[in-house]
Amino acid sequence: MADFNVGRLYETLVRDLLEQRFVEVEFSERVRIDTGIGGFRFQVDLVGRRSDGTLIVVEIKAYRSLEVPTSWLLRAIETLKRIDMSAIDETAILIRRLLVISARASQEQKRRLLESNIDVIDFDGLYELAGTDVELLSRLDASIGSLVEASSGDARPSAEIIDVNGRQKSVRVRSVQPSKTPGADLCVALRAVPVGKKGAGAFETAVQTCLEHLFSDQLTAWTKQRVLDNGLRVDFAAKITGNHEFWLDLVRDFGARYVVFECKNYRKAIDQGQVYSTEKYLFLPAKRSVGIFISPNGADKGALAAMKGAVRETGKLMVSLTINDVCDMLHKKDAGDEIYETLSGKIDEMLLTISR
Is residue 111, in this structure, part of any structural domain at all? Predict the structure, then answer.
């Protein structure tokens, strides 16, 4: 049932993405048609009708890998080719066949699809459709994350295919080529970690991998699970060595040489208790004056108030980032955009609203 739900949620997301792209098209889901072959009836995932008489017939495939064998795509092509537009709408004058896949199609695979007069939207194409829409990007990250298991490397020796009706088939696949969108892939892996205590270790690892990618030219000497003299354990920390204005401001304004990161894989927002605990890890004489929380749901009002109190009373700076914040920064790095707007904005908001 879980796989059925994953497939259906992915199908719904694809429909929403296509409706944003083809604003003049109205899509219908799961249209059954008669193929004319021995009474066999075929279910089309999506059918779009345009005012000029064009039909857009969409076949949706969800995979548990970012790379799939060409033979799978060729079978999907044959399925689309069997569709007769007159069986759907006798008034249609043109048909456009579209294959939407959650995997990343290679250049050779795209060439084969184009030769078959089939349009394809793959992993990268889905993110292009989502554009800068935060809600669609978040849903896409979550959907792909549910399909593709988090992996520490590029190779995936085995995979599963799921169609929108929940059917599965295990297969062997080749290793995945280096990604052109590493930030998006890291976001997928981060969102795939289950929320809660059982996923705490995996969450820390995924967060550190994301942050090392984001700040690779600014932070070094990453250390994990460091135990302080007082027995407290820091999730991980890093040394500021870059010259980006954001980090230089922290060095100048807060005397920071190191940044402490705390991962809270909680179902609820972090509260003031977690802030007070993390404040103990920060020590100004040791140049350890900045702490950054990363959690699924951010900080509640009490936690935010406690963070302001720490700045006001001790000069220690703590900031809360959500998974959405991290993913937004990852997508921006893929696009070559400035990644520090979120962090800078949160700090500015805190400093500008602190009272005496």
Answer: yes
CB 189 within 8 A of CB 323: no
3-state SS class at 260: strand
Residues 18, 146 within the same domain? yes
Write out the H or E segment, with its range, that includes residue 136. Answer: helix 134-147
78: its two tokens = 């044959």
Q: H helices then E strands: how many in the chain?
A: 13, 12
283 contacts 316 by C-beta, under 8 angstroms? no
Task: Check whether residue 39 and residue 165 sit in a common domain.
Answer: yes
CA 138, CA 197: separation in Å to the nearest integer?
23
- Claim: this prediction has a pTM higher than 0.85: no
| CA pair distance 215, 317, nearest whole angstrom | 19
pLDDT tens, position by position, 255-301: 999 999 999 999 899 999 989 988 888 888 888 899 999 999 999 99
Two structure tokens written together for 184 = 């998006």
